[in-house]
Here is the input.
Amino acid sequence: MQSLKFEYSYRFDDGRTEEFVVHLDPESFDLLDLPPDDLPEWTRLGFHQCFNCPLDVAYDERCPLAVSLVNLVERMGEVTSFVPVSVEVRTGERTMSRTTSAQEGMSSLMGLLVASSGCPHTAYFRPMARFHLPFASTDETIYRAATMYLLAQYFRERVGIEAELDFEGLLDIYAEVETVNKAMAMRLRKAHNDSGVNAIVLLDMFAKSMPVAIEESLETFQGLFHPYLR
Here is the structure.
């Protein structure tokens, strides 16, 4: 079965371009792209390891999430966060483009890499990686995360695992991801990567907004579902 391919192209005002191609396993949605042979120190598992990390440095030398970001961080390391960039994203189904800041352009690709990296805390977001939506707004992210979680509950019930509909489990997932984001930002600061740190901060804003979003924002979606509520 052919791998899933996502292509990100960054074009800066000075004429510089950077191309990134991400391949995912079509069944597991694992990241297939091999990291560089010479990995930097900040990718070691014990280097600012997340407080909630279930991995053990005795068995795992590298942080899988950090490793997944090496190519992006190393190649975009000299880019200032707010430098404008034209980004084109090509998938098997469509091509999307946007002119934005470097940090936002990196954050969109980071979201895809983080979900497929192999980090136990971000593995829950692999369905969103499969149906990757570049430059998603806050409302789009909330809707996608909520519907993903409810579909997960449907599958849990089908295999005999207790399902829940009050989103407490989703909030727990995002709480763990907040911890991961903070530790990853510390790693990237050690890598002297300004735009990478701010890209992670943008992802963390979504994680922090989820408790309020679940309580308030989902109510604004109810009008869309009137046909189901008759």
Summary: The mean pLDDT is 88. Residues 194-220 form the longest helix (27 residues). The beta strands are 4-12, 17-24, 84-90, 95-101.
